[in-house]
Amino acid sequence: MASSSTFLRFWLTERPRDTLLSFVSKEDLPAFRLACHDFSVRAAPLLFKEINIDFCASTFTKPARMAALDRIGHHTSTLTFTMAHTPETFLPPLLDPTTGEEVTFIYEPYTQTSRDSASRLSNPTYGSWEMTDLLVKQYSPLFHAAANVPSFIRAFSSLRNLKRLNISCPGQEATQRYRRSIVDYVLISIRIAVERSHLASLDTLSLVSIHPGATLYLNPVMGFGALPNSVKRWKRIENLTICMDSIPFTPYPPSDHLKLLHSYLQLFASSVTDFVFRWQGVKGLSPLSLDKEVCLQKSSPDMACPRRCHLALLPLKFEKLRNMEVENLVVDASQISSFITAHRHTIRDFNFEDTHLRSGDWDQALTPLTRISGSEKWKEKAEEVMDVPLLLDPVGLEEKRVNEALVDYFNCKPRPSRPSIGAWQKAGSRSRELFGGTPEHFRRFLRTSVFSWR
After folding, report:
1. How many helices (H) and strands (E) does the chain have?
2. Range list of H helices, 112-254
3. What number of other Cβ atoms are within 10 A of residue 195's Cβ?
4. Mean pLDDT computed over 356-374
5. 293 near 249, Cβ under 8 Å?
6. What is the pTM (predicted TM-score) of this model?
7. What is the mean pLDDT of residues 411-416?
8. With b meaning 16 or more CB within 10 Å and e meaning fewer, what string describes 389-409?
9. Between residues 168 and 446, which one has the greater pLDDT?
10. How distant, in Å, are the alpha carbons of 32, 247, 328, 355, 428 from that of 415?
11. What letter would DSSP give residue 203?
């Protein structure tokens, strides 16, 4: 490289070099780094900017793997942590080996980070030596890796420039929602590691495909190794995205998980500026107005804590909220109206996707916009956004079959919801996206069709 002065000047100039590296695919970057030492150094920030971790028993326990994370961790700005619910994550009851009776296990995270083996062995990991021996014999190594909080703290301490944390734990069955699994112990360890690591840049949190009980283990207010300053760490989050397994809407839905969700969102009320929430599955109640749901105000013996069910939920108010998007909800028009009114001084864009109004209509729901703007001119700019199918004439196909195909298509197509304020600005770009494709793109579309077209 030194023999070519032109290339040397190009390579040592930051902007052209970074532009060139941006066009190198992530699959080719490892081979690119093998060319020479300087190539390796310059390409490392781009290659390790985003890393994905699929948790297993040896993820944070192998010394070589942790040493590698220490070397590259400072390049990472986005971490995606995934652990799916599988049969391996199921925890059976603990049984006394002598009597066969079930043993109660009260979990208290072991957070001692000393590297001295003598000090580690001087204290039992799970409260007592008897309980530690029982857990070692009856639970798999995956459980002990999940409960190994010091290894999580060391791993997250290596990611000192982390800005975005994505957590995904899909696959929980509805019948297991009131049972603690290994995934829940992983969430506890992640939360403690974030609180005890110096992550000054972390301001974005995405919880994708999580189960309803996850908010209990991610909430520092409710215990499991929390410190007095734990809440302060999470109040630095400015961008929050949650995609949660749905809690079906019924006249008397189980309120325990809904109250946990409400308490968890209260944690970010003073800091979040961008908020996205989606129910995954059937439609659920609006997480922004759970304090107004009648089913959460009445006491019921079926609830986990009937003595405290009479306590009213505090209204959820985001002090700095600018952008909000919720999807797959069942909500009242009055609840939407109250939310817009309460956040009228800060909110700039809100989007209600696939939202069903339980009572009232959208004119009532958006009434605060008229009061805020002083007129109804905002209604003149409203545009409905939907996907419009492009139909061509099929060759050699009976008209009856064409009609049947069209009926099936429109029956399967979900009905468009009320247009959102945030979506009105997107109609033009969406139309260009649908009809502005290249000829090659259109030819590929026709080749993959089941019909012949002319």
Report:
1. 19, 9
2. 117-122, 129-138, 141-146, 149-157, 182-196, 214-218, 230-234
3. 20
4. 84
5. no
6. 0.78
7. 51
8. eeeeebeeeeeeeeeeeeeee
9. 168
10. 49, 22, 12, 10, 21
11. -
